[in-house]
């Protein structure tokens, strides 16, 4: 007789969350070490990691991603992937991709609207902000 879990399909989801968090920690620590040698990586903040369902690709979200940071990350990608492969026991090491965190830019837009509202004093957004 087959036994079913009370949580249904929660186990794979929980595993993905754990994998994402472990990858975030490893990449963040390695970028911190690399920042000593490459000043382009000094102010890089890893906000989260999202792996695909098959764990072959991991998108690393960063607080900001300027052209110089993107170039530095492209140069250091093999080293970062090698570090992940050495520290995480997985069938395949996920291919790392880097992207700016959309939540950070959305938050900055909200803050700017709030600043404008405060300066305006009317409490109504300006026509270009609606």
Describe this protein's structure.
With 130 residues, the protein is α+β, with helices and mostly antiparallel strands. It has one domain: K homology (KH) domain (GMP Synthetase, Chain A, domain 3, 2-Layer Sandwich). 51% of the residues lie in helices and 14% in strands. It has 3 helices and 3 strands. It has helices at residues 10-35, 67-87, 102-120; strands at residues 46-51, 57-62, 95-100. The chain has a 3-stranded mixed sheet with strand order 1-2-3. It is globular. The relative contact order is 0.13.
Instruction: List low-pLDDT spans.
Output: 1-12
CATH-assigned fold name:
GMP Synthetase, Chain A, domain 3
Mean pLDDT level = 80
DSSP strand tally: 3
| Sheet with the most strands, sense and barrel status | 3 strands, mixed
Tell me what the CATH architecture is: 2-Layer Sandwich
Helix and strand sequence = HEEHEH
- Structural class label: alpha+beta
**Rough shape?**
globular
| Beta-strand content | 5-15%
- How are strands sequenced across the largest beta sheet? 1-2-3
CATH top level assignment: Alpha Beta
End-to-end distance? 59 Å
Q: Calculate Rg over CA atoms.
A: 20 Å
Can you count the helices?
Answer: 3
How many domains make up the coordinates?
A: 1
CATH superfamily: K homology (KH) domain
Helix content: 40-55%
Short summary:
It contains 3 helices and 3 strands, in the order H-E-E-H-E-H. By secondary structure, the chain is α+β, with helices and mostly antiparallel strands.
Notable characteristics:
single chain, 130 residues, alpha+beta, GMP Synthetase, Chain A, domain 3, 3-stranded mixed beta sheet, 3 helices, 3 strands, 14% strand, disordered N terminus
